[in-house]
Amino acid sequence: MNISWTTIFVKDIEKSLAFYNGLLGLPVAMKFYGEKQKLVMLGDENNAKVELLENPNVNVSAGNDTISMGFEVESLEEMTKKLTEAGFPVLRGPVSPNEHITFSFFRDPDGYKVQISESH
Fold first, then answer.
1. How far apart are CA 52 and CA 40, in angstroms?
2. pLDDT tens-digit profile of 70-88?
3. What is the number of structural domains in the chain?
């Protein structure tokens, strides 16, 4: 069994696209804007996707801090600079629990915790 996607409900799909596609660089795999909801699948063809779902009938709440989505990047330093310049400050980090990984936490436009990591 493989993970296919993770769905997150968002308040404003365009703001979320600017974050996940524009800043993090996740490619748009599929887009559907219907009358009752908007859906965008992000990610590479053969990998798990992030599904953004905007539905006016759903109360969007990031919940508590027990869940985060993790993304690996080539350079944590470069991505941190890009995110902070765009108004997304570091929530926690950088943390390096061992010599193989360093990561920091941020919040997306809806308050979901996002972990950005760099492998060594």
1. 5
2. 999 999 999 999 999 999 9
3. 2
List b or e across 83-94, with b for residues whose CB sees 16 or more CB atoms inside 10 angstroms.
beeeebeeeebe
pLDDT per residue as tens digits for the range 17-30: 999 999 999 999 99
CA 112 to chain centre: 8
Q: Give CA 58 to chain center in angstroms.
A: 19
**pTM, entire model:** 0.91
Residues 71 and 47 in one domain: no
Same domain, 24 and 75: no
Query: What's the pLDDT at 63?
Result: 67
Alpha-carbon span 11 to 110, nearest angstrom: 7
Q: Which two three-digit tokens encode residue 103?
A: 């990561």
Q: Which of 38, 59, 80 is the last residue of a domain?
A: 59
